[in-house]
Design a protein that fits this description.
single chain; alpha+beta; Kinesin; two-stranded antiparallel ribbon; Kinesin-like_fam; nucleotide-binding; microtubule binding
């Protein structure tokens, strides 16, 4: 079982570059991480057909906004209450799943890019202190099953999961308060403040999780303090080993 995780950390240049989902269907030079990665996977799948490998791929795309999970491929109507999605960890397979999330077969690259563009339209993005920064975390899960059985004599099955995580942009509360000004006092900036606190809490929890795993003293690992950390539990633990 192959498991892989790629993350982008906006506003954290020491870790990696800010890669935005806003460039889903632009030129090749400015495309974001997710469409580039998916295109590369399709190219590799096509190349491996010469070695008698056949692949089936399926994808899920979700958003975590204020600790609430939304299915970006099948969002509920605005008039409906939010659906409740639960994160489950399977101890025997070490796989992570999310309840009531639409899973789509990925057969053609152009269709995948169209789905990503559709999901982008539901993504919570706003003009913030970080230009074009997202106010939510997004996670694209790509599951691949490969089967080989041909004239080359090879037989086998390979299963892999690729998780692409675009983390929301982090902002300083003091600077945000100055930017919002009197709107916070009047209460009109309360939702924006809540967003920022939720985003910053998820980054803080990620740091606490890494610190607890690194202590090697059997400390409690606070995965459940953040939906992002809870979802990434197996991948974080794998990197910590």
């Amino acid at each position: 079982m192959l498991m892989c995780l790629l993350c982008t950390f906006p506003s954290l240049p020491a870790l990696c570059l800010f890669l935005s989902l806003a460039a889903l269907l632009t030129t090749e030079e400015t495309q974001g991480m997710i469409p580039r990665t998916v295109a590369q996977v399709f190219r590799i799948v096509e190349e491996l057909q010469d070695k008698w490998w056949m692949y089936r791929m399926e994808g899920q795309f979700l958003e975590i906004y204020n600790e609430t999970i939304t299915d970006l491929l099948s969002p509920p109507p605005a008039s409906d209450p939010p659906r409740k999605h639960e994160i489950h960890h399977h101890l025997t397979t070490h796989l992570t799943s999310v309840s009531d999330i639409l899973t789509l077969a990925l057969t053609l690259l152009v269709l995948v890019l169209a789905l990503l563009a559709q999901a982008q339209g539901c993504h919570c993005v706003a003009a913030t202190l970080i230009e074009c920064s997202s106010h939510s975390h997004s996670l694209f899960m790509l599951r691949i099953r490969g089967m080989q059985d041909g004239a080359s004599g090879g037989k086998g099955v390979r299963v892999g999961t690729l998780n692409l995580v675009d983390l929301a942009g982090r902002e300083r509360l003091a600077t945000l308060g100055h930017e919002l000004g009197a709107s916070v006092v009047r209460g009109t900036g309360g939702e924006r403040l809540k967003e920022t606190q939720s985003i910053n809490r998820s980054f803080s929890t990620l740091g606490d999780v890494v610190a607890a795993l690194g202590s090697r003293l059997g400390a409690h690992v606070p995965y459940r303090n953040s939906k992002v950390c809870l979802f990434l539990r197996y991948w974080i633990e794998r990197e910590a080993d």
